[in-house]
Amino acid sequence: xxxxxxxxxxxxxxxxxxxxxxxxxxxxxxxxxxxxxxxxxxxxxxxxxxxxxxxxxxxxxxxxxxxxxxxxxxxxxxxxxxxxxxxxxxxxxxxxxxxxxxxxxxxxxxxxxxxxxxxxxxxxxxxxxxxxxxxxxxxxxxxxxxxxxxxxxxxxxxxxxxxxxxxxxxxxxxxxxxxxxxxxxxxxxxxxxxxxxxxxxxxxxxxxxxxxxxxxxxxxxxxxxxxxxxxxxxxxxxxxxxxxxxxxxxxxxxxxxxxx
Amino acid sequence: xxxxxxxxxxxxxxxxxxxxxxxxxxxxxxxxxxxxxxxxxxxxxxxxxxxxxxxxxxxxxxxxxxxxxxxxxxxxxxxxxxxxxxxxxxxxxxxxxxxxxxxxxxxxxxxxxxxxxxxxxxxxxxxxxxxxxxxxxxxxxxxxxxxxxxxxxxxxxxxxxxxxxxxxxxxxxxxxxxxxxxxxxxxxxxxxxxxxxxxxxxxxxxxxxxxxxxxxxxxxxxxxxxxxxxxxxxxxxxxxxxxxxxxxxxxxxxx
Lengths: 260, 255
Fold this sequence. Notes:
- The complex is a heterodimer.
- By secondary structure, chain A is an all-alpha fold.
- Chain A has helices at residues 2-24, 36-48, 57-88, 90-105, 112-119, 123-147, 151-159, 164-198, 207-216, 220-248.
- The radius of gyration of chain A is 23 Å and the shape is elongated.
- By secondary structure, chain B is mostly helical.
- Chain B folds into 2 domains: 1-33; 38-249, MetI-like fold (Orthogonal Bundle).
- Chain B has helices at 3-29, 41-51, 54-88, 90-103, 112-119, 123-147, 151-159, 164-198, 207-217, 220-249.
- Chain B starts with a helix and ends in a 6-residue tail after the last helix.
């Protein structure tokens, strides 16, 4: 395992060196494939001078992160109670099933022009789009979580003469938590996907705006730095979530197959 | 599940959806929401069909579907081959895995600027972005499927003398199919999700272009129509792909 990691790291370094050499020897154009040295320079430039209009990389990261957090938290706080309700009441589940299926199928970014007409190109539009995308991913997982609680557990609780409320709070909700984490992760993925599209319009702050602006100024090196930062940001948050999951739900190890 | 229960479920679904539409319709008709901001579904659909020629709409749908199919097909091809090869040949996997793991967290839309730099403003850049949407879920699920094969299955096949490519194609690949199928479905969904943004790049055709253009013309009805259209197309095609997968890899695998 460790061996393959070392080999993997070496592969990456080898590829980077190859890339650098390919540009120096003229096989690749530096504008189309900005070499690692230029990308390194761009990182320094973004951290010290900033781009565009002296927006430091930390401003971009912070703005993007803040937008995602707002939309994400909004979606999750709305989706959890609704999902618990729909999952518990069978009739509601049947009434809403096609609506939820359709809501999920709507491409979040196709809402962009409509939301712009409603709320302009400001912050609210971006936050709402993220919230919309995250909402359905979370909602369907919460509902599925409640519906597929192991019936043995429910029967066991019933034999112990558990009341309905107690059953819900002590059995159903904890049993749903693993699936909620699945939803939370899926939602996060959706959020990162939507933010880039949402930031392409009406802003110069945020990583999505950074990569587009950089292109208009023919700074492909900065575009790549922006892409890397989006990737790192998404990766760290999703790693953080799985860490949180192992801390909060140490008993849960059997949901590997749905966690994708 | 008995027939009558299934009918009941379907009826409830229709009632639920129907009442939502009626509410929306009423809200708009009774003036709670201005029709210039959020037109009723009937207004949006009828209005669009009146202002935009049907052939144009079909043209947009066709163009978009063609882009998605191209991008998706390339994504399936590359994702399946690379994923299976990485899972089967260890040495290859050690080389590809770090690169894939490094690039995977980057959302497909973030590649748009580079796609333009590499491929220009034409079709290839859009197809490339859609390709990325399909590629990453497929390559990771193919890899996961290949590495997660029950070793007993492989050993049993080996005892019976299967080796090399035969072992790979007759036993390993079919065993990895369910995982691959999941990846393919996720990939299709992502391709669709990416489409609209991909069509923001200097497009003059396609469903994404249709709604963006409608925004500039202030035709809210066309936007609402387009949103529903994209959603319906996604739903239909996803159902179709699900059906094909179920038929192809058999019913014993729950997809």
